[in-house]
């Protein structure tokens, strides 16, 4: 292992929640390291347009990510690449954070802000055609399907919002919804229903993704009401069927609920002193940019108070 760098706080994950926690903690004069497995911004980088974050009538996800990042490092917080593989609580209460880059960092406190990743459908063909027509990111891959027919799977905010983004590019977007209704916010539903290029098919599950030697050609479907099986042609399949928490490396800390989300109180403290969690990774009733930012500000301030209490 490389040398063990020491920080007051290591923030694991640089999405809106993590970046805000880093900003608040560094503005309180703490030494802060933000670690992320990729580019800062988290799921903002996969979001075309944001219309429900206060202060912006409309802003592109990557643009908001850049603005948040610029703000988050202005008081001295550092940022580094690295996937966190383990967190250990030491006998003196400090925490050792290990990464896949063969590095270790020791911190008085950590903030878990790893967020969530998109759930996979788990049907045959999904992994095989991933990157060859199966996608989880309209912003990244939509442009490959100009004037082509696409299928979106799911019925939540993401499926409807990203479906509308794709409809600007594709010849047609068919949204396959497994139940008889959408879960998306009513305003998004209304907008999508008015879009001529969008079509919704309810009570329909995808049972297999099919293709030829090079790419996806369509899906096999099952009607959950009539029991009928069918097929549908498309050049691309975009999957938006919810999220799963990115918390495997924290399982041994005893801070997760049965589904893997991190349990905290309303000051973002977990059951382990000095370990906080913010944003989508938390067990929380609402997962939004605004809620993640709110969590981050509380955690940044609570981390400061925790470190002060150690010094008394
Ligand atoms: P979500 O709200 O959990 O919705 C998941 C959708 O996928 C539901 O329609 C669900 O159907 C469906 N689904 C789940 N498993 C499926 C399967 N195996 N086959 C077919 N369909 C399946 O997920 P999300 O839309 O990704 O949103 C995640 C969170 O981010 C939410 O809290 C959401 O509000 C938030 N978000 C907000 C915005 C915004 O505010 N603009 C934008 C995007 C996301 P059932 O209804 O039948 O379970």
UniProtKB/TrEMBL annotation:
Ordered alphabetically, the record's keywords are: Disulfide bond, FAD, Flavoprotein, NADP, Oxidoreductase, Redox-active center
Query: Which EC number applies?
Result: 1.8.1.9
Going by the entry's taxonomy, the superkingdom of the source organism is recorded as: Bacteria
Q: Name one GO molecular function term.
A: thioredoxin-disulfide reductase (NADPH) activity
Q: Which segments constitute the FAD/NAD(P)-binding domain?
A: 7-296
Primary enzyme class: oxidoreductase
Name any cofactors this protein relies on.
FAD
Q: Quote the SUPFAM superfamilies the UniProt record gives.
A: FAD/NAD(P)-binding domain
Can you quote the record's cofactor note?
A: Binds 1 FAD per subunit.
Reaction(s) catalysed (UniProt annotation): [thioredoxin]-dithiol + NADP(+) = [thioredoxin]-disulfide + NADPH + H(+)
- Sorted alphabetically, which InterPro entries does this protein's record hold? FAD/NAD-bd_sf, FAD/NAD-binding_dom, Ferredoxin-NADP_redctase_2, Pyr_nucl-diS_OxRdtase_2_AS, Thioredox_Rdtase
Its assembly, as annotated, is: Homodimer.
| PANTHER family hit by this protein | THIOREDOXIN REDUCTASE 1-RELATED-RELATED
Q: Please report which protein family the annotation says this sequence is part of.
A: Belongs to the class-II pyridine nucleotide-disulfide oxidoreductase family.
Q: NCBIfam families in the record, alphabetically?
A: TRX_reduct
Q: What's the protein name?
A: Thioredoxin reductase
Species assigned in the record: Limosilactobacillus vaginalis
């Amino acid at each position: 292992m490389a040398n063990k760098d020491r920080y007051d706080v290591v923030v694991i994950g640089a999405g809106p929640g993590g970046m805000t926690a880093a900003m608040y903690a560094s503005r309180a004069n703490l030494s802060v390291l933000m670690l992320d497995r990729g580019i800062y911004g988290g799921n903002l980088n996969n979001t075309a347009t944001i219309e429900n974050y206060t202060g912006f009538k409309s802003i592109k996800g990557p643009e908001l990510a850049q603005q948040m990042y610029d703000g988050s490092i202005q008081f001295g917080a550092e940022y580094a690449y690295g996937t966190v593989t383990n967190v250990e609580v030491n006998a003196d209460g400090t925490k050792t954070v290990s990464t896949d880059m063969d590095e270790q960092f020791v911190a008085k406190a950590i903030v878990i802000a790893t967020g969530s990743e998109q759930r996979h459908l788990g049907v045959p063909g999904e992994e095989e055609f991933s990157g060859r027509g199966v996608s989880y990111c309209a912003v990244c891959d939509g442009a490959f399907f100009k004037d082509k027919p696409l299928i979106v799977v799911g019925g939540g905010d993401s499926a409807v919002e990203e479906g509308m983004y794709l409809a600007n590019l594709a010849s047609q977007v068919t949204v396959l919804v497994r139940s008889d209704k959408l879960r998306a916010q009513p305003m998004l539903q209304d907008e999508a229903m008015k879009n001529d290029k969008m079509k919704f098919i309810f009570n329909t599950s995808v049972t297999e993704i099919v293709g030829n030697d090079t790419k996806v050609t369509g899906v096999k479907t099952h009607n959950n009401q009539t029991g009928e099986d069918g097929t549908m042609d498309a050049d691309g399949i975009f999957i938006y069927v919810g999220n799963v928490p990115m918390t495997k490396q924290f399982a041994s800390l005893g801070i997760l609920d049965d589904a893997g989300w991190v349990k905290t109180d309303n000051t973002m403290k977990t059951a382990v002193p000095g370990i906080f969690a913010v944003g989508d990774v938390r067990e929380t009733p609402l997962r939004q940019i605004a809620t993640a930012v709110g969590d981050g500000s509380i955690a940044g301030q609570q981390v400061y108070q925790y470190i002060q209490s150690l010094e008394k």
